[in-house]
Request: fold
Amino acid sequence: MGRAPCCAKVGLHRGPWTAREDSLLSKYIQVHGEGNWRSLPKKAGLFRCGKSCRLRWMNYLRPDIKRGNISPDEEDLIVRMHALLGNRWSLIAGRLPGRTDNEIKNYWNTHLSKRLRDQGTDPSTHKKLSEYRNEPPPMKRRNSNRKQNKSNSEAQKQKVHNPKPTRITSLNSLTMSRNNSFDWTPNEALNGVPWSSSLKGDVDRVGFLIGDDQDPDMVNGSDLECQSGVPLSDHNTTEKLYEDYLQLLIRTEGLDLVQLDSFAESLLI
DNA sequence: AATGTTCTCAACCGCACAAGT
DNA sequence: AACTTGTGCGGTTGAGAACAT
Reply:
């Protein structure tokens, strides 16, 4: 990549954010919107690197962040989504409105993985530890899935065409953020129908779609809850996502993992 | 009250990728 | 094609809080 680290510049402030810095960042984003993180600190009068600003906004200052303890329902969903998706925190966070990937990651590492272990379950594989009586548990996965993908891709290069979902970079221009508005409803995700018809072209690139039915009501339905940042009041919605995903896994037990991977990725679009 | 240990979580780091030049 | 830029992600760290002795 050949890039100097983002925060290498001397003189930049690091460590905990002050109330004044928070205020400067919030006010700037209220006026100018998200994005252009690299140039934002200078324009906002902050002696921080853009990356740090983005992180602070995403994980702490955003108005739609849900404060307070993670509910049992959320816990349950995190555990089950983790069983399906692994350490894809942003993907899991996308299903928990108002929660950030960092928060979920921390909660997993400090609470949930410990609890699973206490219950006799390997938190990385979600298998019962007793099942490892005759075989050692697999090595803890240190690498992210993306890194894994890279190594896997060497072996699979010729075998499977696995188109990458396109990342929408200009979220700001759509006045959307990752966790709230830029999101599909579970049904949209599972049916392969994006939140906006303008993205339909991208859907083909996702590679693994289920069903052809399009439910026009969904745009005006629960999707709006996401767009407004209002937490899904209906637990059934996330529950349904999980159930559908699980059914998919069961139905397609022999299915190529790469395809499942694509489906998981497609939830991001 | 003092000290040591464990826990929590905000913040940082390095890497990957899409898009632009 | 090669390189740069901007952004996003997951893993890790470390300061402070909470708890135990």
